[in-house]
Amino acid sequence: MNHRSVAAGRDLPAGWALSRAGIFLTQPINLIFLGVAGIIAFLSLYPTFFLIYGSLTDAPLGVPGHFTLNNYIRAYSDPETYRLIVTSFVFGLGASGLSVVLALTLAWITIRTNAPFSRLFELTAIVPNIMPPILIAISWVLLLNPNNGLINASLVKLFGWQQGPFNIYSLPGLIFVEGLILTPLAFLIIAAALKSMDPALEESAKTLGSSEFGVARRITLPLMRPAILAAGTLNFVRAVESFDTPAIIALPARIEVFTTKIWREALGSFPTNHNLAATYGVGILVIALLFVYLYRRFTSQIESFSTVTGKGFRPHQIDLGPWKYSASLVALLLLILMVVLPFLVLLLVALLPYYHVPTWQTWQNLTLDNFRYIWDTSRVHRAFANSLFLALVGASVCMLLAALTSYITVRTKIAARGLLEGLVFIPWAFPGTALALGLLWAYVDFPIPVYATIWIIMIAYVTRFLPYGLRAVSSTIIQIHKELEEASVACGAGFFATFRRILIPMMRPGVMAGWIILATIFMREFSATLFLYSPSAEPLGPLLYFLYLDGMRGRVAAIGLVISVISILLIAVAQRFSRWEKS
Amino acid sequence: MLRNLKAFLIFLALTLVISGPAFAQDAKLIEAAKKEGGKVVLYGSLESDTVEAVRKAFQKKTGIEAEYWRASATKVMDRALSEYRAGRPLFDVILTNDNPLQIMQKQGVFAKYESPSAKDFPKDAIDPNLGPRYRNVIIGIVYNKGVIKSADAPKSLEDLLKPQYKGKLVMPDPTQHTTTTQWVASLFKLMGKEKSDKFIRDLAGMKPILVESLLPAAERVTTGETPIAITYVKYAFIFGQKGAPMDYVRLEKMLGDGHYAPLSNKAPHPNAGKTFIDFFLGDESMNIMARMGEFVNRKGVFPPLPDADKIQFVEMLDLDTKGFAEKKKEYAKIFLR
After folding, report:
1. CA–CA distance from B225 to each of A506, A507, B37, B170 (Å)?
2. In angstroms, what separates the C-alpha of A559 from chain B's closest C-alpha?
3. A307 in the same domain as A453
4. For A98-119, how does the pLDDT look when each residue is reduced to its tens digit (9 = 90+)?
5. How many contacts, defined by CB atoms under 8 Å, are there between A and B?
């Protein structure tokens, strides 16, 4: 409260505050704000509270303990912690940098040039999001391990070398794989910004005699900088808190990062030290929130750069002339790296009775047993049904919340709107397994009996992945000029009519883009839900996880491939409902 | 012929006399279990395919549905204890290994249940609190005989230190993987303190590839990426069955972990839990498990792995929280140099 209003408050009668509250509540948007803020604050703060509480006590949940700072002293007085934070930073910077370069290249070629097949490339840029990251990491180990990785083995055979040239078990190997895994999200952000860019500046530069590449270098890239930084920061946080890829690649390489240390000391230790895990989680949260703050600043810059009106336009396409085929070739190469190679390896794993480097004899042993398992097992069918339900309903609920939140944070001038976005990012900033603990503690004896039902999984998904939905829809809301809403209001429509008739149709591209990302993640997510699901409501993610635990890689790969096919169908249907490509 | 028939009738009569009360008890228990809702909820780290096979047989025999939540032993304990402390335990029976069960036992999670099926287990395989140790999970040396000929394979643990195996050995990281910490710490039971201390240092000096857990170690053997692993012996059978050229080294004695199936004392379906334990420890289920490669403890039942009956099992040392922390720290200095 500023000085003036305090002074005014002193002079005004007591009823004033009440009547102001009354006025506040008569505005539908304010009521919606309160509702949305309430839901988000609850989803985000309730499990977070348990994690922070856990970090400040010396006993596990449910056991009365004492207040202590010992967990913090133990976690952060070890000099090794800081050395590992540095390694994690290098890893995070490398992986997010690579993902941004790949996404930018792919987005520029597919959206801004006349390279052939660009639509196909654009669609497949989302495809890697379908696969569980752990499967992508395993595929790359099978392709690039120094002893018998398929690529190394082929090169050795082809050129008669002593040894294959690549070694996945190295920091560059780790960065490479994580970079590929992170590319789809970077693509989503960068592609959205590229599509919404004002072509006026580029056209002026061209008029003034700049070449196509000169325009790209001097105009397009600087204009894209906020989006690039936003994608980079978001992916940096994801890389720093990722555990799957380091577990598979860093451990044999004897590289330790911050998350593998958390695993060794707290989560993977026996018995699990939940309090220490929560303490590390809070530390990562602080670092992540710092980056989320930076990300917010970058995205607010995107908003100021996107001087787009409601009038239809499409940024001009650059005619690459004879170079257009080279551009397609580059896109094709990236897609071979991101999609084709890992998928072929998975197909091979799914078709072999046990995985080995294929020889001529192998082709006789190929089997459909793993696919038959899917067909025959009712438990797998139930898991598919549960996951489809979660994907369709969960992604829709999440996008509804995201659309409302995004409208409030981008469009209104309500005081606490920035805080609302901050709240959304808190659960996302925790490492998945730490959040899983927080969710378990929060909901295990929740008064409404949601624990161990499918609804708790939906709550977990919405809690963790709301930021993705928010990102996707915010980039579209920014594009919609206020004049359209104002026109609607001027013609006598109320808030709800305007929201339904103007905003929802206009936001559809962003909503559908976000919906696609979320639905494909929900089809296979597991780390946040592992503690929450019950065997009677088992989705695909946990099913994949325990098949993997039991060494059934063939079944995991086969189910992974079926999930991909279903996800691609979902994407195709969703694309039909959206005008994403045309926006 | 007549004598045979007589002998058979006497045998039949005796069997009925002995098993009659057991049948009656079974039927009563099953009846009570059905009244509770006709299902039992299991949490455990036993492989899900094995549980699936047992579950089907159990349902066929009793008509009771078994629901199974599968995770690693540590996660099983995490979830079970969290639910228990919060007063919302959803599980009836836990199927996992000794160490986490002992911790849960100390927190008072389990009820004492003496299953009639326990009588077929050797006396030394029965824990006073947790009941029969239904299986041993044995850790040994497994190798890929497509890459390393049986004649060239190591013959003992000490053989692993030979220079020819450098770069060919994979094992779980003993500073991260709990069972492996326990395995390294228990080596003295096989070779004595002095020899084991030296062996551990020399093993670390071989710079084995370190992985997350025992399964990825075995998988690297099946793919031939690293042909020799310290891992569960049963993987030689499980992957061998799929066609992988796997074998295991016939060590004289092998270390391993015992697994139990105790009943929760706040089980939502206590009678279904008891019915399941009776069946689970019984002949049919133990045979199903053995056929799937498990070293079960029921007398005379072995997995179809060559020389399985000759393996001498030595139970690994139980470590407490402090013991684990100390050992992990000690091994970090040796293995992660």
Report:
1. 53, 50, 49, 9
2. 16
3. no
4. 999 999 999 888 888 888 887 7
5. 130
